Known about the structure:
Blueprint: E1 24-26, H1 28-31, E2 48-61, E3 67-77, E4 82-84, H2 86-94, H3 104-119, E5 124-128, E6 142-143, E7 171-184, E8 191-203, H4 207-215, H5 224-236, E9 241-250, E10 256-263
Parallel strand pairs: 6-7
Antiparallel strand pairs: 1-4, 2-3, 2-10, 3-5, 7-8, 8-9, 9-10
Amino acid sequence: MHKDILLGKETEYKAEYDASLxxxxxxxxxxxxxxxxxxxxxxxxxxxxxxxxxxxxxxxxNQKGKPQVYIAEFMIPCESKSIVESKSxxxxxxxxxxxxxxxxxxxxxxxxxxxxxxxxxxxxxxxYDVLDYPLNQNxxxxxxxHLDVEANDYKPNAALLSLDADQAGTMVEETLNSHLLKSxxxxxxxxxxxxxxxxxxxxxxxxxxxxxxxxxxRDHDDFHEHCAEQIFCDLYNLGEFELLAVSxxxxxxxxxxxxxTRSLVQVNSEQLIGRLARQ
Length: 279
């Protein structure tokens, strides 16, 4: 891990705008560890996708000194060269708090410019009035947490996965979800809690095996985006799929939540899972 990373360190919180606070972390090193699927579908990546960060503590001053408060969604393409270290993202957003701006469009342009540079890809920023922020409207499918499984593995283990032997050769389409995904921050070791949503059309998954696999991330140290990519690759290697999308909605920490989606097909905003109860 980079020695200059801000997580876990005592830090000065700046209240005046400062773009230099953004700290990128290259995606390349982690992706070299992935067991790649049978073939690559998206240039050098085995998936399409987007990382949606939600900022619940967005504020700045108008030219009269009156605070402006919004919720923001930051859309980062998975093709971007880097992720941004979450504490640096929070510090960057906090630096707007005591800075005056002419308009919401000015702030949007500044953030999109700064974050696109930091992530190494085109970032889209959308602001919502607090009263107008949309709640979840998407179908989460069937929850599998009620299954009575015995779990002994708490490090990611793709060998736990299997297909449903009773429906071998059958093509199915379904959406499954679990609230039992947990990993740990690789720097601070703080727990990261998430709901995992899997939509697929293809070889039928063994649900008990899937739940045991999800639980196996419980003591795993990695960033949110990397966990979602590993889960996608492990599932895709398992069977034959026409459609496969893996979304993880992580609970917020410090006013930010991170929500990666990886898919066999291009992802549009209408397909993304909205905010869930724990967020």
